[in-house]
Amino acid sequence: MTKLFNLHTHHPLPPDEETIRTCGIHPWRVTPNWQRKFNLCFGPLNFPFSSAPQLLHAIGECGLDSLCDVPMELQEAAFRAQVGESELRCIPMIIHCVKQTQQLLDIHRTATQTWVWHGFRGKPQQMQQLLQHGFYISFGMHYNSDSLAACPHDRLFLETDDIQTSIRPLYEQVAQLRSTTLEVLSQQVWDNAKRLFFK
After folding, report:
1. Other residues' Cβ atoms within 10 Å of the Cβ of residue 44
2. CA pair distance 81, 113, nearest whole angstrom
3. What number of other Cβ atoms are within 10 A of residue 90's Cβ?
4. Which residues lie below 8 Å from residue 195, measured CB to CB, with a gap of 6+?
């Protein structure tokens, strides 16, 4: 049975799936004392992977969200700190962004590490803009079919996020949408994961 890569999930995985280890402060969870959370997550004494930092595959999910109640200046401060951690550790970022694309891209210009836009639901025009900036695109259970069909196979990820389900039905849907097989799609996604997270 083909083992499937799930970029981002909040739930235990079935035996035929694999994901990555990440750590980050979601914009919804940013508080005035976010530096304490940051130190708990990334500090040299308390960071859970500090004895083997290579086991952390990415920073995130983190980003900017106009629809949550957290003041944008706090969100941006926490996000920029995590961008710095990504640069320091030379690992990618898993991005959460709602109605803050331009601000996010402005910050992205300072970064050298790869960013993955998770849970993408936007139109192909927005996706093309992100691709031009070097982003990878991850699609969840809800997606724009035109965007998913048009996403280059070498920039594509799939995820279940906070939905407690196997990712296999999503792979089957996407394989059909992209006129390929589950096996080919799985290999394409695994190639991307190996290139980005398992160097």
Report:
1. 8
2. 14
3. 9
4. none
Cβ-based neighbours of 122, under 8 Å, separated by 6 or more? 144, 147
Is 1 in a helix, a strand, or coil?
coil
- CA–CA distance from 159 to each of 16, 165, 172, 177 (Å)? 14, 10, 13, 16
Q: CB-based contacts of 112: which residues, under 8 Å, 6+ apart?
A: 87
Which residue in this structure is represented by tokens 């750590």? 23
Write out the two tokens for 161. Answer: 């996020």
Burial of 154 by CB count in 10 Å (0-12 exposed, 13-18 middle, 19+ buried)?
exposed
Closest CA to 7 of 147, 87, 144, 117: 117
Let me know: does 50 contact 44? Beta carbons within 8 Å. Answer: yes
Which ranges in the chain belong to alpha helices (H)?
34-42, 72-89, 101-108, 124-132, 145-150, 168-177, 182-196
The DSSP line for 123-164 is -HHHHHHHHHTT-EEEE-SS--HHHHHHS-GGGEEE--BT--
Average pLDDT in the 20-28 region? 94
- Tell whether pTM > 0.90: yes
Q: Is the pLDDT of residue 178 over 60?
A: yes
